[in-house]
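We modelled the chain as a single entity of 393 amino acids. Its sequence is:
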Amino acid sequence: MKIHDRYALTRVINAAGAFTPLGVSRSSAAVGRAAGEALGEFFVMDELQEAAGAAIARLSGGEAGAVTHCVAAAITLCVAAAVAGGAAARVAALPDTTGMPTRVVIPAGHVIDYGHSILQAIRLAGATPVVAGSERRCTIEDLEAELAHGETAQDETAHGETAHGETAHGETAHGETACLLLVSSRLTRGEAVDLAGAVAAAHRRGVPAIVDGAAQDLRIGELLATGADLVLVSAQKYLAAPTAGLVIGRADLVAAVRAHEKGIGRAMKASKEAICGVLAAIEEREATDPAAWQRAQDEKVAGFVRRAETLPGVGAAVVADPTGAPFSRARLTIVPTRAGMDAAALAQALMSGTPPVWVMKQGLDEGQVNLELVPLDAGEVETILARLAEILV
């Protein structure tokens, strides 16, 4: 029996992207075999991490790499590395950060919630998030003001809080700045922050910069080119490995991240099957022609759009990924008077069918149904088109 039948689970067509509530992505048979083989073997885990680190560095061009349980874990461990370094006594002390720099500056529009708030991921390391700017706009000057304040901040009780419950305008009880945390994600809000400019501002103050690029494994090189000290990506998104977070960047900071495996990171460790799956997925990525892969994705979307635009009340278009990933998406703009329903109702109708089709939530309020087709095969694309034709009659 197939696994869905064995456990009476719902089969889903995922046109919502690399979406955690739907299991994120599909691994290839080769990646599955590697993970399965690992389950039946013993390893010296430090050797396995070293092999993975070398493969990650080779793939990314970064100095060093490491594997964590996931990117949420990687955020906490990278903050811990910036706050405490890798000295054993400090590793053992966390989350008690007495005597350590603890301020983590983050643009307000980058305070995202991916199942929990990124602020909680920072606090788990014993650090204090400091929110810069507003959700509408955070300038380099806003960031520099908070970074500069860390040089003179005193251990005093904060007087004010932001809407996120975090200290703002430099009012913090925890001394100097540990790091700058930036997010490259479709979940960010407001005007785009100049990542390279923000990283340069941090470096002018001697502060390391971390970029959370969870779904950006296809853009690691671009994110490293900002000068970021550490870049974090999910192995289970477009790399299609088992669940794992990849930490890439400065060798000393990556080593400090690894040191925290003997501290708060004990609960965030990567498993042997995940690391072996990551190694197999990296080998597949290295053997893939990126231009050919991109063409195949673009052709899939273009074919879908050509057929969808013939449906009543639908304007269909090919749109670029909003975060700069090298693939396109399909956008259906719904005219309710002709379609007989609005975009939100159409999305609900798709989800209510058998099998349920999940689409992206972004854009529904603006009358758009956005679909990401990357992980879908031709049969699933046909099913979505057939379902649309049934609904929009």
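As a brief sanity check on the tokenised model: The first strand starts at residue 13 and ends at 15. The chain has two domains: 29-287, 289-391.
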